[in-house]
Design goal:
Layout: H1 2-27, E1 45-48, E2 55-59, H2 63-77, H3 82-88, E3 137-142, E4 156-162, E5 170-176, E6 181-182, E7 202-210, E8 215-223, E9 239-247
Length: about 250
């Protein structure tokens, strides 16, 4: 009985000490902003639509092969509809960071990014996004990093090229918005708790002239001060690599 009593008191003491340490640690953490951000890497990038990997293949003459991409794009861009953005977000001054002061627990305002800015890649005029013509678009977006100000005052841009092989396999790419950059007014990001209506800015790449019936490896990279896009151990850090195959 004494032995059981001893171990009961001993383990209760350990549990109490652990709970106290956790309580003290949680007091030092903020639910709004990470305490330590010195190990956060520069931003990565992702593309949409993304279905079953980074090999995108379809035949123009077979709608069943490209319709899933079209549906995915409409679903993804629903949050960017012009009316939705006008109701939830505000118009901001282009070309400068949208820095918001006040208490960190206060809800932050978000800048409008309207779907119509993507023009030929918006799916507004052409509901098939160009897939029915063999001219598919892809949309790139930053991974969101709280407090990050990309480009050090200069907008980060996107470019695309053939990763390996003949550069003529990718003869034409259009970017939307027209300059192919992420405007500074959408940064910094304050986190999902306070930046409730925030929608990441997008850059659409419209592949209008790609070699048909051929696997074309494409690399789209971010370019700007502080951006890393040549690290072979991380294919998403500052770039995205995918293969495009368009059949007739």
């Amino acid at each position: 009985g004494l032995i059981l009593l001893f171990y009961f008191i001993f383990y209760m003491f350990l549990v109490g000490m652990f709970a106290f340490c956790m309580y003290v640690m949680l007091l030092t953490l903020s639910p709004y902003t990470p305490t330590y951000r010195d190990r956060v890497s520069p931003p990565g990038v992702m593309i949409r639509p993304y279905l079953n990997g980074f090999t995108i293949a379809f035949n123009v003459s077979q709608p069943s092969t490209w319709q899933p991409y079209v549906d995915s794009m409409h679903h993804f861009l629903a949050a960017y509809d012009d009316k939705v953005q006008e109701e939830k977000n505000i118009e901001c001054i282009s070309g400068q960071y949208f820095i918001q002061g006040g208490n960190e627990s206060e809800e932050k305002k978000a800048c409008q990014f309207k779907r119509s800015l993507l023009q030929n890649c918006s799916g507004i005029e052409d509901p098939t996004f160009g897939y029915s013509k063999g001219q598919p678009p892809w949309v790139s977006c930053f991974f969101q990093i709280i407090g990050y100000r990309p480009g050090a005052g200069v907008p980060v841009s996107v470019d695309c090229k053939v990763q390996k092989g003949n550069e003529s396999d990718l003869r034409s790419v259009d970017f939307y918005p027209g300059n192919g950059t992420f405007d500074l007014m959408y940064y910094p990001y304050y986190g999902k708790i306070t930046h409730v209506n925030y929608t990441s800015p997008l850059v659409a790449m419209h592949f209008t002239d790609v070699k048909k019936n051929y696997l074309v490896p494409i690399q789209c990279s971010l370019n700007g001060k502080g951006i890393i896009n040549d690290l072979n151990s991380d294919r998403f850090l500052g770039r995205i690599i995918f293969t495009l195959s368009i059949g007739k």
